[in-house]
Amino acid sequence: MNAFARIVWFIVKKDLTVEVRSLEILSTTMFFAVTVVLMFSFGLVVDGRPLNDVAAAILWVAIAFSGTLALGRTFERERHNDTLRALLLAPADRPALYVGKLLGILLLLGLVELVLVPLIGLLFNAPVIEQGVPLALLVAAGTLGFAAVGTLFAAMLVRARSRDVLLPIMLYPMTVPVMIAGVRGTAALFQPTPDAAVAQFWLSLLAAFDVVFVILALWTFEPVMTD
Amino acid sequence: MRLLRMVIVLAALAAPSLAFSDLSSVALAKEEQPQPPADFVPAESESQEQIPAMPLLGAAYGFIWLGVFGYVWSVARRLRKVESEIAALETRKR
Amino acid sequence: MIVMMALAGTMFAAAPFLIDAAPQEATMGLVYKIYFFHMPSAWMFLTAAVVAGVASFRLLFLKRPRADHWVIAAAELAVLFGAFTLVTGPLWARKSWGVWWVWDARLTSSLMLFMIFVAYVLLRKYGGAGSDKLGAGLALFGMANVPFIYVSVNYWRTFHPPTSVVPKLPVEMGIPLWFCVAAFTLLFIILLRLRARLEHQRDRVEMLYLAEDEA
Predict the structure, then answer these.
(1) ipTM more than 0.95?
(2) What ranges do the domains of chain B cover?
């Protein structure tokens, strides 16, 4: 394994080890996501029936909200123990740090989504199993886009004041294309006659977004994190 | 000198409010709408009577005028403060 | 600088008369004249956004610390002219379209870009130390995002993209319009330099204090 991959693996392992001990971030984020789904359901279900495309919207809003929380708290943990500075001081490739943290967040959000998607399927009679593969691809691509930008911003904000509210302020406008693409793509799949072509279009947009922003994040991580 | 410059710009920006006191308009011209999105059909407004244009026009220009005026004033004020601070610091240095 | 300001001053003084002399529009009557300030505002908004993006790149990748002054100035102007655009637009739309707002590609994209720059200004104001690099990262990401925002919003409402209408203006309307564009451009340059100068002077104060401490 080359140096880059080794560092990435080291960071992922470290985060996993710490998290597995307490499961704090995972369990609280998951429960938070579930409450978000329920809160929005109460607002958007009229006469016992959901408004059109609401299931898709609620899924993605829940991902966005719980993702923001997870990002904030993951880096709060780093800040608390000042481990981020230690990581930065280490002779490690900066982009490797970014990738390591990104993978950790993806893992966390992936687990949350494993609960969220079936929940949406249950609550809204959405065809999550029949549309399993395209849906999984959409959710994965969208989560990657969201997390790619989010990990960078959250890392950038670790030492900033007002970081709790600044993260969503910076993140949400930036991830509007992800939300639009995710919701429209998912809605296309959830329709009575699913529209695979439309979903594919949105998936390709998400893929393009992912490529551009992961690369951009890798480039900017170094200059932005150095004092 | 700097203050004079500011006053010139600001006074000029005040001119629009004078111009709109004269409402004589020139003859109608046939023209296509500058900026309609092609997929949008203007909705029927509940009031079929004309929405008066002048308040909208006045609000638009007024907002811009206030915005520019306010911003210039704010930047000028902070600039003056900083520059007097610099002057004080530099005299202290000597 | 003085020359520019005097020129801008006279242009803005003359503008209302030119605008008033422009003919009334057939279907929209008087209210379309908002366009003469709305369009230049929109152009300056986008220009400010691009300047902020370029300066951010210079700050982060070409390691020019003073580029930061220009990022701040451009970002604030993006918020200023963005606000002008997003306020005058609906005021005009209310009369000509009957509604304040529509979720079409251009409007929504502009709104999102505006939000990104508001986020920048908030970050610089409340983020504390080190926000200059963070903000530059934000501005850069914002720039990279523009095509994605536009495409996604464009296809969002209906799947079929609307065709854009390029305005064809008769000369009587072209003159006040381009005059206003020139006036706004001048104004933009003046404001940008003023605001950047403020940051530059603030830096000087810091350095003078530091020099004092060391002495």
Answers:
(1) no
(2) 1-18+55-94
